[in-house]
Specification:
Distance between the termini: 67 Å
Strand content: 5-15%
Family: Belongs to the glycosyltransferase 31 family.
Number of helices: 14
CATH architecture of the largest domain: Alpha-Beta Complex
Main location: Golgi
Strand order of the largest sheet: 1-4-3-2-5-10-7-11
Keywords: Glycoprotein, Glycosyltransferase, Golgi apparatus, Membrane, Signal, Signal-anchor, Transferase, Transmembrane, Transmembrane helix
Largest sheet: 8 strands, mixed
CATH class of the largest domain: Alpha Beta
Membrane topology: Single-pass type II membrane protein
Number of strands: 12
Number of domains: 2
Low-confidence stretches: 1-5, 24-36, 142-146
GO molecular function, one term: lactosylceramide 1,3-N-acetyl-beta-D-glucosaminyltransferase activity
């Protein structure tokens, strides 16, 4: 009897200690659990059960005179004839900052080289860079810090050489990215409306231009409409942590979920969808500074829905392998290695090695190993291995 009592007390003690340990872990991690799990549960519930996005559209609608304040900036640098008398397959806007001279140089030398695209791929793609006005000397390119020219004068000199900077007179900053988004759609509407597609991309992205051109040519032959493709975020909740770069206060956006949108690192819309987005910007409040979310609000207001393409990487960096290059569209997070990646991804051997029954089986196995991870990797999803 005494032994049983001792065993019972020992068992209860172990249970008590285990319970205390679990509660301690929960208390320590509760804030993270609330941010990363509870907010997503609430967001998905709102999206699929309540779905009050019509109220969001109404609340963001403002008079045209007021909406004009988000687009009525004078051009500091412009090229209104950039698309004139050309059958433009794609107008590609690269979002850049005044000081990112080396990034623009790398893009012009690799995937954004218009001469290469015209001569090798046989289509016209116009690549331009969207930017605002420099803030201070911190926006000067690092390799020109000793120049007597100010940041704006250096941009003028760069533009005289390349003729591809589109700049408006608003402060170039993270919180003005939505103004940069509006700039792109307004510029296309007034200066390049005949382009069949519009792409917006960050300046640290890699675009596999041969794959993208081939894909868009196929979409053009099919006559796609309301086309918007990229890495889709569905049921994403606003971030309420004040220490986050993407913090959005309740006063700015009080709802639990954003409308569906594509990652701002890189996405493509058809010309008819671009015109609808342009029309939406004429009546919507653009004070929300998360530009890809604002794009989702505009698209939702005019009935355009994003479509997922597994080889648009969103914010992720794609694995380096020829089996990935065979179908790659975009990969994010490339600066110093963009030259090497361009050379490796566009080699003729890539298509040869990945073609045929043996090549396809080999690449499927490789992509399964690279993409089908037991943990979340923000790049191509596992299903991309089987396409």
């Amino acid at each position: 009897m005494f032994l049983r009592f001792r065993r019972l007390r020992r068992c209860q003690c172990v249970q008590l200690m285990t319970t205390c340990l679990v509660l301690s872990v929960v208390m320590v991690c509760w804030e993270q659990l609330d941010n990363h799990v509870v907010s997503h549960v609430k967001s998905y519930s709102y999206r699929y059960l309540v779905n009050g996005f019509s109220y969001i559209n109404k609340s963001f609608t403002i008079p045209r005179e007021q909406a004009r304040s988000f687009s009525n900036f004078r051009y500091l640098l412009d090229h209104p004839d950039k698309c004139a008398n050309k059958d433009v397959l794609l107008l590609l806007f690269v979002k850049t900052s005044p000081g990112n001279t080396e990034r623009r140089k790398a893009i012009r030398s690799t995937w954004g080289n218009e001469t290469y695209i015209q001569n090798t791929l046989g289509v016209t793609v116009r690549v331009v860079f969207a930017l605002g006005s420099p803030r201070t000397k911190t926006d000067e390119p690092s390799w020109r810090t000793r120049s007597r020219l100010g940041p704006q004068e250096q941009l003028i000199r760069e533009d005289r050489l390349h003729g591809d900077l589109i700049q408006q007179d608003f402060l170039d900053s993270f919180h003005n990215l939505t103004l940069k988004l509006i700039l792109q759609f307004h510029w296309m509407h007034s200066r390049c409306a005949h382009a069949r597609f519009l792409m917006t991309a960050d300046d640290d992205i890699f675009v596999h231009m041969p794959n993208l051109v081939s894909y868009l040519q196929d979409m053009s032959r099919r006559g796609v409409t309301n086309f918007w493709i990229g890495r889709v975020h569905r049921g994403a909740p606003p971030i309420r942590r004040k220490d986050s770069k993407y913090y959005v206060p309740y006063e700015m956006y009080p709802w639990l979920s954003y409308p569906d949108y594509t990652a701002g690192a890189g996405y493509v819309v058809s010309s008819d969808a671009a015109d609808k987005i342009y029309q939406a910007t004429l009546t919507l409040n653009a004070s929300l500074y998360i530009d890809d979310v604002f794009m989702g609000i505009c698209a939702n207001a005019v009935g355009v829905s994003p479509q997922e393409h597994v080889y648009f990487s969103g914010e992720g960096t794609a694995p380096y392998h020829m089996c990935i290059y065979d179908q790659m569209m975009t990969s994010h997070g490339h600066v110093e290695n963009i030259y090497d990646l361009w050379k490796a991804a566009t080699r003729p051997q890539v298509k040869r090695w990945s073609s045929g029954v043996v090549g396809r089986l080999y690449c499927t196995a490789v992509k399964m190993a690279l993409l089908c991870k037991p943990y979340y990797v923000n790049t191509y999803p596992c299903k991309a291995a089987f396409l």
